[in-house]
Design a protein that fits this description.
alpha/beta; 29 helices; disordered N terminus; binds ligand IDC
Length: 676
């Protein structure tokens, strides 16, 4: 629809480019393409939002804005570039559908947007054509949401040449006056509201002395606003806001006033030699402060093809001068300038796949700039979480020389290190919170969090501080735990006994009762380590043959038996140095006629070494090897003597030792044969 009407400016652009190309030998390329944003989304949008404290929102950090020379500055007097999202016309559902706190918050938290533009179309069924009251409601809602979220909001009196010919904002001067009277008054105490008094004049020069020019219009409207507020006012310029340079000779006298440039990058190709681009540079050179309240990365119709490269060149220029920008437009309308694909019907919480080329590029642009934003002072908020209870920049860099070296001047970097590494490493970042002390002090926390140190910081921030828990000065573990996963090991385990008895345990778990208990459960019992003065595995094992039969060499089972039963049965668990009631039955055969554990282990040093306290092992050895080898395991039975003494046995049993032992057990003993 508008394409035809752009011909004039496009023709001028081409002509100018030609003239420039012929007359100049070198056309300097724009400096600084460091931020050449891609049209492919470089970030993952998950539709999540952050719970920012007011002080961490864009407005909370930067406060009320003002103009200083050609620059927009924040309340710290630093240059400040707004990253703006323009809604579509709010008289249409494509515009007001997205007026919600959730939508603005998505823009703020995932799109890197700091400001919202509200296009109040004057015609096209807009403010002067029947929609005023509906649009008033929408404006007021939008300002409320933006304000709640600490975002800037630009109220745009959207005069727009949709019907051809010229567009002179003086045509709606009285309506404009009452509109701005109303809103300047309503928002006089709002530091985050900006006013744009005429979107895109056409065929209306900045100044011609007629009283019907833009200069006169601005001089009629701005005093109305200034009755109430010195908020930033942005004034449109001639030819769809492409001529801010025209202002230079007749600048307005009101402070905090800026002048508009609009571009559509496929029509107005970024770079020297483009008429609009050059107009901006001229304006800046002449001290005219410029704001880009609308631009697109497609052609001037808001549709058609994209020119991303051109858009990036425009952004480079804007970056050089800190020029704020507002990208056209947040909707899913089926046209190139829409941020969202037309298939996306979500009104907020958009995810990566919902974004069009414009939307993707726009997010890249914002997020790149957001990442480079220098905090105005030490920050404590990271990813929406405020670490002020546990983090202080100065304390952190002064305590750790490695941190100072790397992050000594980097507030955000130091905080990021703390959050992503420092907490895991247990570093202290504020005098009032030492995670080691906090952990030592509270068994309830240890049993929940174990060695997951960041959880302790988190607990203190969320609850511990409010509960007035002690977080410094406790150097030893208090009330060490004995229970894990619902099992109480206190009958066989005591933290202090365990770490003091074993130097390796002290080294590894000196301040870590959970780790020590885990070690005891997973390894210590298997290894037969003693966990408490009143329970000694070897003694318990020595004392009870029923347990040895049941558990054999499964050490852990003895501990568990004592915990569950032995303790109640008052079984003895210390001081028994020798094996009591050593077993003599193996695979159902009782070897007691030829075998005695004490005799066997005392007679053979190798047996003693290996089976000194292991009656089951010794007997097994005897049965499977000892008899074959002719070893003696009882004063009553010597196989060599037995064999030598009885010729009948030798005839029947030959040279097989084992058979002699077995014969004695089954017959020889009863027959009173002598086997000594
Ligand atoms: C366009 C919208 C389009 C709508 C039209 C109505 O993209 O959906 O149908 O307005 O007139 C501007 C104007 C802005 C235009 C935009 C694209 O400020 O209102 O929006 N554009 O044509 N100036 C240059 C381009």
């Amino acid at each position: 629809m508008l394409k035809g009407k752009r011909v004039t400016s496009r023709f001028v652009s081409i002509l100018m480019a030609l003239v420039m190309a012929l007359s100049m030998v070198v056309i300097a390329p724009p400096k600084d393409t460091a931020f050449a944003a891609s049209a492919t989304l470089q970030y993952t949008l998950t539709g999540s939002t952050k719970n920012l404290a007011a002080s961490e929102t864009p407005y909370g950090k930067h406060g009320k804005l003002h103009v200083d020379g050609i620059y927009l500055k924040d309340s710290h007097n630093e240059k400040y570039q707004l990253r703006g999202a323009s809604l579509h016309g709010i008289q249409w559902d494509v515009g007001y559908n997205y007026i919600s706190k959730e939508a603005f918050q998505s823009l703020r938290d995932e799109w890197g947007v700091t400001a919202i533009r509200l296009p109040v179309y004057v015609t096209q069924g807009g403010y002067t054509e029947g929609a005023a009251s509906a649009m008033d409601t929408r404006i007021q809602n939008a300002v409320k949401y933006a304000t709640d979220l600490g975002m800037y909001v630009l109220i745009d009196w959207h005069v727009h040449d949709a019907y051809g010919g010229s567009c002179n904002p003086n045509s709606w001067k009285s309506q404009s006056k009452s509109f701005f009277e109303k809103y300047a008054k309503m928002y006089k105490s709002y530091g985050n509201v900006l006013f744009e008094i005429c979107n895109e004049p056409v065929n209306t020069p900045w100044y011609n002395g007629s009283g019907n020019d833009l200069y006169s219009y601005a001089n009629a409207i701005i005093p109305v606003i200034r009755k109430y507020t010195d908020a930033i006012v942005i004034v449109g310029t001639n030819t769809w806001s492409q001529q801010p340079d025209e202002v230079a000779d007749h600048k307005l006298s009101y402070k905090n006033t800026m002048y508009t440039v609009h571009f559509y990058s496929a029509t107005h190709i970024g770079g020297d030699g483009n008429w609009v681009y050059d107009n901006v540079k001229k304006a800046l050179n002449k001290g005219v402060p410029v704001m880009c309240t609308e631009f697109g990365v497609c052609d001037a119709s808001g549709n058609g093809s994209y020119n991303i490269d051109s858009a990036n060149k425009w952004m480079s220029l804007f970056d050089q001068y800190g020029i704020s920008y507002f990208c056209w437009q947040l909707s899913n309308k089926n046209e190139s300038s829409s941020y969202l694909k037309s298939s996306c019907s979500k009104r907020s919480k958009w995810t990566s796949g919902d974004l069009s080329t414009t939307g993707s590029w726009f997010v890249n642009v914002n997020r790149e700039r957001e990442a480079k934003e220098k905090p105005s002072g030490p920050v404590t908020v990271y990813n929406g979480v405020d670490y002020a209870r546990v983090f202080n920049f100065n304390y952190y860099v002064n305590k750790y020389s490695d941190i100072k070296r790397v992050f000594g001047n980097d507030y955000a970097g130091a905080l990021k290190h703390f959050v992503t590494s420092g907490m895991k490493e247990g570093r202290q970042a504020i005098a009032t919170f030492d995670v080691k002390s906090y952990k030592n002090k509270y068994a309830d926390l240890r049993s929940k969090f174990g060695n997951d140190l960041p959880k302790y910081y988190d607990h203190y921030m969320k609850y511990g501080y409010a509960e007035k828990r002690v977080a410094t000065g406790v150097t030893t573990v208090q009330n060490p735990i004995t229970k894990l996963n619902g099992v109480d090991y206190s009958k066989v385990y005591d933290f202090n006994f365990y770490i003091n008895k074993y130097s390796d345990m002290k080294r590894l778990f000196g301040n870590d009762d959970v780790g020590a208990l885990q070690h005891f459960i997973n390894n210590g019992m298997k290894e037969g380590r003693q966990g408490k003065a009143s329970f000694e595995l070897s003694s318990y094992k020595n004392a009870y043959s029923d347990l040895r039969k049941a558990f054999g060499s499964n050490n852990k089972a003895y501990y568990l038996h004592y915990m569950s039963t032995g303790y109640k049965e008052k079984r003895v668990a210390t001081g028994v140095k020798t094996v009591k009631n050593p077993i003599t039955v193996y695979n159902g055969v009782d070897y007691s006629r030829v075998y005695n554990f004490t005799y066997y282990t005392n007679k053979y040093s190798d047996i003693k070494r290996i089976y000194g306290n292991d009656d089951i092992g010794a007997l097994k050895h005897f049965v499977t090897c000892g008899m074959k080898e002719g070893r003696q395991a009882s004063a009553e039975f010597n196989v060599a003597h037995y064999k030598a003494r009885y010729a009948d046995l030798r005839r029947n049993l030959g040279n097989d030792n084992v058979k002699y032992y077995m014969h004695y057990i089954s017959n020889g003993y009863k027959e009173h044969r002598d086997a000594r």
